[in-house]
Specification:
The chain has 370 residues and is α+β, with helices and mostly antiparallel strands. It has helices spanning 7-24, 71-74, 109-115, 122-125, 149-153, 178-195, 243-246, 281-289, 294-297, 321-334, 347-350, 361-368; strands spanning 27-37, 43-45, 61-70, 95-104, 131-137, 162-164, 198-207, 214-218, 233-242, 267-276, 303-309, 355-359. The strands form two sheets. The protein has a six-stranded mixed beta sheet. A six-stranded mixed beta sheet has the order 11-10-9-7-8-12, sandwiched between helices.
């Protein structure tokens, strides 16, 4: 059963309501991103996301458009008539609120977000939509009824093309969401300086060879990869942060250092992603080789852009490096809504002309041998 209907009835009703929406051009109330394309090219869908904790779009992304449609135009539809707007006590209401689940391609994300404002018409927005998938009521007659989004999406997207997480792992900070961006900004720009941890290792994971404007980031790079710093380069600095200074930071609290069996550990192992200008490469590496405190290295660091635990308490959690780095490198101002309380990073303005590419260090090393 899909929305209390058999599969065939649901498919027919869903196709009908999508056609009706095109005809009546409803008014948009709000929008919310609930999915993005991950490093492995799979659409990661988080039904638990909402307007406060929505995912920051990256690649082909899934959005919910909340719209208001005239009741008399949709009252015969088997899906929409399940709305609480059709309860007897709501007879005087002339409109019903619906959710439209749609996909937006990466090159249309910015204009889509800009025009998807309250009061906009659906026809203004639809030129930026790759595909409209399903429609549901905003609220159902049956109190507490929740849709099984995964089951619905299976009918319109190949199951191998998406992954549905029923909850936001460890809250909204474990996925590339707006709250994560806020926490990461505070951690990188304010808290880490006062903590001043000891740097234990460093290695390059990205460079701009030949002085070009493409920063190549090697997503599987490690200490042994031997990526050569060149031009503006990205490093990972491994550091030990005392638990007493972590306090309740929502990013670092996800570390495996907080597992019961590691209770005696006094520190959290963390990875700091930072950008270093070409003229500071030698100075940074010489100091880092001596095991310096972070604040001794900071004069030679352009930006600390991201900070994460080295290992997570949840063994099933896989950190999506590409999606998170895209946010901190370019998306932090592009997708911030008007009136947001976000502190704007200077990263995007400094790197406005820089493009990103994500490659495999192992694949590159193998290719260079042939």
């Amino acid at each position: 059963m899909l929305l209390n209907l058999n599969i065939e009835d649901w498919k027919t009703a869903n196709e009908d309501i999508l056609k009706i929406i095109d005809d009546i051009n409803p008014q948009v109330i709000s929008h919310c991103c609930i999915g993005y394309t991950s490093e492995n090219k799979i659409l990661q869908v988080h039904p638990g996301a909402n307007e406060e904790t929505d995912i920051i779009p990256s690649g082909l992304s899934m959005f919910i458009l909340k719209c208001s449609v005239p009741k008399d135009k949709v009252s015969d539809n088997l899906i929409i008539k399940q709305s609480n707007a059709y309860l007897p006590e709501n007879d005087n209401e002339s409109h019903v609120d619906i959710k439209i689940f749609c996909l937006v391609p990466e090159d249309h994300l910015k204009p889509f977000v800009q025009v998807s404002k309250a009061g906009s018409s659906y026809n203004t927005i639809k030129q930026h939509i790759y595909s409209t998938l399903i429609v549901t009521p905003e609220k159902f007659k049956e109190e507490g009824y929740k849709i099984e989004l995964k089951d619905l999406l299976k009918q319109v997207i190949q199951p191998s093309k998406f992954k549905c997480s029923d909850t936001l792992l460890a809250g909204p900070v474990a996925v590339p969401s707006r709250p994560w961006k806020e926490y990461n900004y505070t951690l990188c720009k304010k808290n880490i300086e006062s903590i001043n941890p000891k740097v234990t290792k460093h290695y390059c994971i990205g460079n701009t060879p030949g002085g070009n404007t493409e920063l190549k980031i090697y997503t599987d790079a490690n200490v042994k990869s031997g990526i050569k710093p060149e031009g503006l380069s990205m490093f990972i600095l491994e550091a030990k942060i005392p638990k007493a200074q972590v306090l309740s930071d929502p990013i670092l609290m996800l570390s495996d250092a907080y597992l019961p069996e590691k209770k005696s550990k006094s520190y959290v192992k963390a990875e700091l992603y930072c950008l270093v200008n070409s003229e500071n490469l030698d100075k940074l590496q010489k100091l880092a080789n001596k095991g310096s405190d972070l604040n001794r290295l900071k004069p030679f660091i352009n930006n600390i852009v991201m900070l994460k635990p080295k290992a997570y308490a949840d063994p099933n959690y896989e950190f999506d490096t590409m999606a998170h780095l895209k946010i901190v490198m370019h998306s932090c101002t592009e997708y911030t809504r008007t009136g947001s309380s976000s502190s704007e990073s200077d990263i995007s303005s400094r790197l406005e002309s820089l493009s990103l590419s994500f490659v495999s260090a192992e694949t590159t090393a193998q290719a260079s041998k042939h």
